[in-house]
Design brief:
With about 800 residues, the protein is α+β, with helices and mostly antiparallel strands. The strands form 3 sheets. Strands 1, 2, 3, 4, 5, 6, 7, 8, 9, 10, 11 and 12 form a 12-stranded mixed beta sheet that branches. A hairpin with a 6-residue loop joins strand 3 and strand 4. It is elongated. The two termini are about 40 Å apart.
């Protein structure tokens, strides 16, 4: 290889390109765009799908996701007793652990409270992950259960941010949400959270153990995320089979809570990367097509340039240059071009990664940590070397046939794009562009359909005040109710406010659960027929602030207090599920250990976003709810009048006037939460449109270059035609007709490939079929129009050929 490609070849390649700056700039720009897009997507896929979390023996760590037998995983939560039983009743697991959401307000003593995302974990959670503390110790079995002293562990970032990195914080008691917790440890800076819990993209920064014995946790309360560590030599398939057997046994022992339930075993990253894997694979395939288009475009330029230099190659061959020497120079020229494109592509990729960070928000796990690391740079180097080989090999067969640059071959190659190589390169570009444009159209249609879905709530003119409830922990239920009434009264008095209410979880936020609901009126249910729903603790005004339509009965009122009979409002799907025979008002159900009667029915709410079917919803009076009532943190929803400009500062000040100790964590438009629920679709749509637009631009450039090359190489023919009486417009139409034939061939091939690709990616579309007529019509029309417009200017040159100059010999 060194004989083929010497340093002198590189110097000659640089000099050669300086004599053709137009070719060089066009080729390098084309390749840089493809390399940049490919680099960004490879970096994202590598970071999200391939990079390990850094736990010891990570391949043995698994996620335990719950669900009904035979149904796809939706929420994936489990109950704590089932996770512990799985460890005790199976031999596949060296241990299991669980985590659930906790959102404490930390009072460091020398500043205002800090609300931090956290988790309640089983005592062995960090030991199972294989994490060692940077300071202090981990939890022990003595730290969990009834009667234990409250303890907590801090993340490194929280330790620095709130406690200033003070090592003496270990052993100190800190007030959190009205309870004193002893800080027993600090995790290392390198700790990478497995992201089983997220709080609108934030990950836990503080952890505590449960103050309830495992046996006392309700088996039907599936609000935990489970993890496990496989025993040595046990695979995931064997572990899942044993998990199914254990759950079947538990279903017989606890038919009301566990029958028809199962636990799926998957790699620890699966709950996080599973939902985005298919989309990333499609984007990788799409950007691979874009890279291929850019390489084909650059290759067409190189081939055309090679034909223009035919006489030079002929002379050098006649003077004794070997095939290997010619290949070495072609390879050197391709390497110089690809290297320049690679450097420019890396610069563009840096900007592209920042753009992806902004677009992705919470739709890609850990995307804010994305960088161009060694693996990504190695990938770019591999691409550059591959492109160099392609650009060196493609022209070789056109200039060095075995008989020594036969003139017949060169003349055939000079006759426009009649040669199979260049015609194939152009048609391939057009076909690949059709695939990307068609995909961009389908994803754009999907995003439009998502925004057309009626969520059951009105996301416009509404703000969500993420509260904590710190001021409520020391209050009685009556005192808390009085404070909330005062808060809502003050908020409603603000100019432009139409309604205000609160709940423990607002629709479209990330935390979900499925709590057991046992109807008490109607036919008795048999073992294993227990039902669950999204159970929300809500105050009066909450459903009105959300804009949820009332179907029958009434909504919750302040009369539904602790002294009154339990009241609940249920959604339409909950009514159909619990009492399909109808006549629902007044029916009773056991929820969270208490009895509640239906006082109203409201429309379903797409609480997990427009792409997910509505879950049955139960709204309990917060004054009566035994688990998450008025004494806990509730988030407030404020609805303004149309086009009202509600000021966040005024809302925050109003809340704190009523309760100065109540921290307002954030104030955001409700529409932001909707955008986050479709962020994955929007990101795919934006990237596909970017790729489609780039491919269209590259194909247009390639087509314009092809037509220009054809006109230039056929100027003698056009000169003869003009001399024989042909008119200029006829020659322009002739050149455009040739371009139209290439476009037609590319569109035909591309539509067939796009339809197959659409079928393969059908699961990523929303209410759009792969044969969507709008995309089928618009894609070829757009490509044809843009292609003919781009070809028109070089085609006009055919009419401007000077017959006298063209007919001169030489």
């Amino acid at each position: 290889m060194m004989k083929v490609w010497r340093l002198g070849s590189v110097r000659r390649a640089v000099r050669s390109w300086t004599r053709s700056p137009g070719f060089f700039v066009a080729g390098a720009s084309t390749l840089a765009l493809g390399i940049a897009c490919t680099t960004v997507l490879f970096a994202v896929a590598d970071h999200v799908l391939l990079q390990p979390l850094g736990f010891p023996d990570e391949d043995r760590l698994v996620a335990l996701q719950g669900g009904r037998i035979g149904e796809p995983i939706t929420i994936g939560t489990v109950s704590y007793p089932e996770v512990r039983d799985l460890a005790e009743r199976s031999r596949s697991f060296a241990g299991t652990a669980a985590i659930r959401a906790w959102l404490p307000a930390i009072e460091p003593g020398d500043g205002p409270p800090t609300v931090a995302p956290g988790g309640t974990v089983s005592w062995n959670y960090f030991r199972l992950l294989g994490v060692d503390p940077a300071l202090g110790r981990l939890f022990t079995a003595a730290d969990e259960g009834a009667g234990r002293a409250p303890v907590a562990i801090l993340s490194h970032d929280l330790w620095i941010r709130v406690f200033g990195g003070d090592a003496d914080v270990v052993g100190r008691t800190v007030q959190m949400s009205g309870t004193g917790y002893e800080i027993v440890g600090v995790l290392p800076e390198r700790y990478e959270d497995p992201r089983l819990l997220t709080f609108d993209g934030d990950i836990p920064e503080i952890w505590r153990t449960s103050g309830i014995d495992v046996s006392d946790w309700p088996r039907g309360g599936r609000s935990w995320r489970g993890i496990g560590r496989l025993a040595g030599g046990v695979g995931i398939g064997v572990a899942e089979a044993e998990a199914r057997d254990v759950m079947a046994t538990l279903g017989e022992i606890y038919p009301e809570e566990s029958r028809d339930q199962t636990i799926h075993v998957s790699p620890i990253r699966e709950p996080v990367v599973g939902p985005v894997r298919s989309g990333l694979i499609v984007l990788l395939a799409s950007v691979g097509i874009l890279l291929a288009i850019s390489v084909l475009n650059a290759a067409s330029l190189v081939v055309n340039r090679t034909v223009d230099r035919a006489n030079d190659w002929r002379v050098r061959r006649a003077l004794g240059a070997s095939r290997a020497q010619l290949f070495g120079e072609l390879l050197a020229e391709g390497t110089v071009l690809a290297a320049a494109a690679g450097l420019a592509g890396i610069g563009l990729a840096v900007a592209g990664i920042e753009a992806v960070r902004q677009l992705a928000t919470t739709s890609l796990p850990g995307i804010q940590d994305l960088t161009l690391d060694v693996q990504v740079l190695a990938f770019v180097l591999t691409v550059v070397l591959g492109v160099s080989l392609v650009l060196g090999l493609l022209p070789l067969g056109r200039i060095t046939p075995e008989d020594g640059l036969a003139r017949a071959d060169l003349r055939a190659g000079a006759a426009g794009l009649s040669g199979p190589l260049r015609r194939g390169l152009l048609v391939g570009q057009i076909a690949a562009t059709v695939v990307l444009l068609f995909g961009a159209g389908l994803t754009a249609r999907s995003v439009t359909r998502l925004y057309d879905v009626d969520l059951g709530i009105d996301t416009e003119d509404a703000l969500v005040l993420e509260m904590h409830g710190l001021g409520m922990f020391a209050r009685s239920d009556d005192e808390a109710a009085s404070v909330y009434r005062d808060v809502f009264s003050r908020l409603s008095a603000l100019d432009g406010v139409r309604a205000a209410g609160a709940a423990d979880i607002v629709p479209l936020t990330t935390n979900r659960s499925c709590d057991g609901v046992t109807p008490l009126d109607g036919p008795p249910r048999g073992p294993g027929e227990a039902l669950c729903a999204e159970v929300r603790s809500a105050t009066p005004g909450f459903l009105e602030a959300l804009g949820v339509p009332l179907i029958h009965g009434r909504t919750l009122g302040w009369e539904d207090n602790r002294d009154a009979a339990g009241a609940m409002v249920i959604s339409r799907s909950a009514a159909d599920l619990f009492w399909p025979e109808g006549d629902v008002l007044g029916r009773r159900a056991l929820v969270h250990g208490d009895t509640f009667a239906v006082v109203g029915i409201v429309e379903d709410v797409h609480a997990r976003g427009p792409a997910v079917e509505p879950d049955p919803n139960v709204y309990l009076s917060a004054a009566q709810e035994p688990w998450n009532g008025l004494g806990r943190g509730l988030s407030i929803v404020v609805r303004g009048t149309p086009n009202a400009r509600l000021e966040a500062a005024a809302l925050r000040a109003t809340v704190q006037e009523a309760d100065p100790r109540e921290p307002v964590r954030s104030i955001r438009p409700l529409s932001d939460y909707r955008d986050e629920r479709v962020a994955g679709f929007r990101l795919r749509g934006a990237l596909m449109q970017l790729f489609g637009g780039a491919a269209l631009a590259l194909a247009s450039i390639g087509l314009a270059g092809a037509v220009g090359f054809s006109v230039r190489r056929r100027r003698r023919e056009y000169g003869v035609r003009l001399a024989l009486g042909a008119r200029g417009p006829e020659l322009t139409r002739h050149a455009l007709g040739e371009a139209l034939r290439w476009i037609g061939a590319g569109v035909a091939v591309g539509l067939a490939a796009a339809f197959v690709a659409g079928l393969a990616a059908r699961s990523l579309l929303f209410h759009v079929q792969p044969w969507d007529p709008v995309a089928l019509v618009l894609t070829p029309v757009l490509l044809t129009v843009v292609g003919l417009v781009s070809a028109w200017l070089p085609a006009r040159r055919a009419a401007k050929v000077d017959p006298m100059v063209s007919l001169r010999p030489g």
